[in-house]
Amino acid sequence: MRAELLAVGDELLYGDIVNGNAAWLGGQLADVGVTLERSVVVGDEVEVIAAAIRSALDRADTVLITGGLGPTQDDLTREGIAVAAGGVEVRRVEALADELALRYEQQGRSGDVPNMNFRQAELPAGAQPLPNLAGTAPGVRMEIGAGVVYAMPGVPFEMTAMFTANVLPDLLRRAGQPAVVVHRVLRTAGMWESSVAQALAEEVERLAPIGNPRIAFLASEGQTRVRITARARDRAAADELIAPVETAARAALGAGVYGSDSDTLEGVVLALLAARNATLAVAESVTGGLLAGRLTDVPGSSAVFRGGVVSYATEVKTSALGVDAGVLAIQGAVSAATAAAMASGVRDRLGADYGLSTTGVAGPGSAEGHPPGTVHLGLAGPAGVITRLVRLPGDRARVRTFAVVSALDLLRRTLTAGPNVAS
To answer: What is the value of pTM for the model shown?
Structure first.
């Protein structure tokens, strides 16, 4: 079965609201084997909505609409469906009006409900209502030609409840027994998306004529996910298809892979430390506490994480971490020497096995003659001190986020390579 999504609302077009409904629905449809081919956003205009529905049904078996079912004048999804169905009448359904009246009465609002609210009791002729147990606006189900349209509220918790209880069962009935879709996600760090894609180019080319499994690349916040998707008659058969692709991908990506599926980089790092009965402290300048924040987001991190020092001002690097004033004067705060001293200083002062540091330039301007995105990392451990210089792209927020990922990845790779690695 092929599906398309249609989100209705000027607020989506103008960026007032992010269309999170599409992301959620995309995942739900993929999990049951429904092929999502397109996702479109349109404004609050009847003819535009109708044209989008007709166009989608020319390509797909079903159209799932979110938004435009409320009581106000700009809620025009019902009218758009009616026009797409050939201009059928939109009329009030007394049974739905009675249900709304009863709900308002139960809420103690029967005396102050505007008549406009009962627009939600209207349906295009030939359509069926979809119960809304989480809100007041019923959904709409309507067959148009050989396809079917489902319209759901734009409010996320109402939409998810309606989809799960009413739309999904009907979709599965219409689709018959769809294939099982299984995803395996490999998570990488320390590699740009293009490098990941290049490493897997041969495997992607091999799979292209087959089409199943498929590989997709998803870059976000300094990390790249490799998603391997397989369709099969059951979970075991899908896993069997994925297994050789995963093996090939792991071999090609090597140490770039830090985990899979729901793993997080900070969670993996903390687990590696815990396995060694080792502790960690961090010294941050450019990241301003973001590194410590990521680590303490992980439940149970207190067993490993000793704490951190945000030494943002240059003089604090000396007073709080013991960085030699001469190093700062000669090498500067943005230097490998300062990163090394910060890492050693926080390790000593907080009594940790490992000290991890970040110092650099987030931007937007340069500092000490260094361009934005220049970041030095330091790692002090039982085997000595190592530093890394990374050049990070993007605005201030991205540089800081990427710096956190780079620091965690430096520690991960060092721990994975062995406790005696110091360079």
So the answer is: 0.76
